[in-house]
Amino acid sequence: MGIKDKLKFLKANEHNIYVIHYSCENLNDNNENISPRVTSIAVLHLQSHTMHSFSIHLVAEKAHIGRDEIADNYNDLEKQMLADFYSFVRDNNGALWLHWNMSNINYGFEALSHRYEVLSGEKGVRIQDSSKHNLSSLIIEKYGKDSIAHPRMKTLQNLNDGNHRDSLSGEEEVKAFQDKEFVRLHKSTMSKAYWFQSMYFLLQKGKIKVSNYNLSQKLNNQMEKPWVKLLSFIAVIFTLVQAGQLAYAQFNDPQADEVIKAEQPVGKP
After folding, report:
1. Are strands 38-45 and 96-99 parallel, antiparallel or unpaired?
2. Can you tell me the distance from the alpha carbon of 89 to that of 127, in angstroms, rounded to the nearest whole number?
3. Is 220 buried (19+), middle (13-18) or exposed (0-12) by CB count in 10 A?
4. pLDDT at 69
5. Is the CB of residue 208 less than 8 Å from the CB of residue 199?
6. Is the backbone peptide bond immediately before 226 cis, with ω within 30 degrees of 0?
7. 38-45 and 132-134 beta bridge pairing
8. Domain 3-212 superfamily per CATH
9. Which residues contact 154 (CB under 8 A, 6 or more apart)?
């Protein structure tokens, strides 16, 4: 399925799309666990703009656990947060999930499932791979892998109004977790989900600003627009009509062949 068909499919199913993003500990080895702890998950319904939040600090507040006690209860809080998330997934069976590179065990749906299994001994609700749509990959497929300078997310944020005051870099999110700034961390997670939503709508309109958009890709995308296709169709019909009229005139005008013969150079058949 090409990028045009993928976007057409998503457009037809926007009522069923959820944008997802999550924050976690450092993705490297300097964590207390082998796999990084998940700290918050933001799930945004694309069409209604409704945000669903799952966060360690929100679970702690419901359990009347103070900020200074959260670190002593990380495992139980993270387990409950993930249980709440998978309950939401179960209630929305068949949903489509729009994400940003959540594609492996290091960072992705598999990482969420792994953390839940580590903490609870149970597997999380499986989200079918066909229901996952990587916004980053869609943008690259549309504009070309060389159209966005690395780091790609930061480049696109700079070009497409993505530097929200609540948005933190990966390093800043790690520090926020270490400093127990859980609200600040979750606000960053939510702000990125909102930005992914805006990028999706820009992608559907073909209006994402990129670092380098080569001419051939631009022409190819222009040729896919409905009004360009309509003009091309009209041009083909016009050409066929003109050719038909010429053939008809020659067939019905006995003098036409004589005129053509008279105009031919002498000595040529």
Report:
1. unpaired
2. 8
3. exposed
4. 95
5. yes
6. no
7. unpaired
8. Ribonuclease H-like superfamily/Ribonuclease H (3.30.420.10)
9. 169
Structural domain boundaries in the chain: 3-212, 225-263
pTM for this entry = 0.79
Q: Mean pLDDT by 10-residue block, N- to C-terminus, for the chain (269 residues)?
A: 96 98 82 85 98 97 95 97 98 97 96 97 96 98 93 96 93 89 96 98 97 58 60 75 70 58 56
Q: 193, 125 in Cβ contact below 8 A?
A: no
Q: What pLDDT score was predicted for residue 215?
A: 44
The secondary element (H helix, E strand) that includes residue 43 is strand 38-45
Neighbouring CB atoms inside 10 A of 223's CB total 10
List for the chain the helix, strand, coil content (%; round to 5). 60, 10, 30
Tell me how far apart the alpha carbons of residues 198 and 19 are, in angstroms, rounded to a whole number: 11
